[in-house]
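Holo model, zinc ion. Inputs:
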Amino acid sequence: MTVASRFYDLRQAYPALGSGVQEDELHAIAAAEGIVIERVRRLPSAGATLNAAGTAVILLRADLEPDQARSTLAHELAHVWLGHGAEPVAERSRISRKRREQELEADSLAHLILNAKLRR
Ligand SMILES: [Zn+2]
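Output:
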């Protein structure tokens, strides 16, 4: 599964993705997907993803500016949609090559979700 094919599948289900999707729309899509989002006061990174008994739970730090909350949420949703394992809370320190690849994939899918300019 490539990032691009995952994006096209998601966009079939949620046409707002890649077309200027706003944070509240991302929240609605996450809810439709059974993904739980919690804003938390204390977190060493902007966001993190946990797996709680089979339910993906995305943590977003409560003090993020709106643009950062939107991009962090897209990045964390991308991890879930790419089937990556739970995000370590200190996500960018001491990480393996595989983890770095997953971060690049998540950034790539998040970029498509937020900014894609699709041509037909
Ligand atoms: Zn990440």
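The beta strands are 36-40, 47-52, 55-61. Residues 75, 79, 87, 91, 103, 106 surround zinc ion (CB under 6 Å).
Archived with the compound record.
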